[in-house]
User: Fold this.
Amino acid sequence: MRNRIIEQTSTGVRVFAPAKINLFLAITGKRDDGYHQLTSLMAKLALGDILEVRRTGKESGIQLACPGYPELENHQNLVFRAASKWLEATGESWGVELSLKKQIPSMAGLGGGSSDAVSTLVGLNELGDSQLSQTDLVQCSAEIGSDCPSFLMDGLCVAEGRGELVRSLASSVYQSVVGQKVLLFRPNIGFSTAEVYQNLAKHKKYSTDDWAKERINLWEHGELSTIELLHNDLEYPVFSKHLYYRVLFQQIEKQFGLVPKMSGSGSTCFVLIPEGSDQIALLKELIFNSFGDDCWVKDTEIIL
Ligand code: C5P
Assistant:
């Protein structure tokens, strides 16, 4: 995680907060606590936000600036929750100034808010007189959001439970995916994660736990390619309501022979771009024609 730190000054620190995509997301049932049980393979992207964390010199208070996104400058922002949790957990008391440069769209299934929160914890751990241990960071981040602990891991990771039980993979396994070019695309709409899960619960279209674990196991042992592994159970509730996704996906498959997937609870989708592909401009044209001129399209790649 230390490699998320971009720069350190006497008063502050700049931290990178990468986006993620779910290469595999199987939802295997609803739990008694209201959350859903899942198995997921998550990859970090070169696309990310940049967070500056500074000590203000005051005795207390958390301030947040988010240039260009005033709607995110409020106490609901997960960076706020992360900063107050870190201060509470360490017992330290000093003023914190947070400045967040957003690149990751919100309500997009790319984990932007969760990644920002984890970068806040990492930044404060760097600036604080005391530090939270890795175990405490995992616990603290899990209380902020189910997918937060995955952002404490470098490389690809497998998440289980409600998303908070994470394990890293052998570097020999994930190295083959690092550097993979990814095209992200998203219609000009955001989805609430809670609502998408609620709609899945209505349809009860779950995978079995055994199947999900077996798929990951086969992939880890090189018996399944990353393209063959791609899966997302949350596509069903989203695509049943937003029919235009299926139309575009079928066209991408037919015209380009590629496998598009939605990331997390959407609304962002992605395609893994084959090495040396000369079809990207045509693919983007198809996406804009289908999702409209106001859709968001971004080239990025999987990082360590
Ligand atoms: O954990 P987080 O706050 O990110 O989750 C947002 C919402 O998504 C939860 O309140 C829950 O409704 C839903 N969720 C779920 N199962 C998960 C993760 C999230 O039902 N594993």
Q: What stands out?
A: The chain has a mean pLDDT of 96. The chain is about 35% helix and 30% strand.
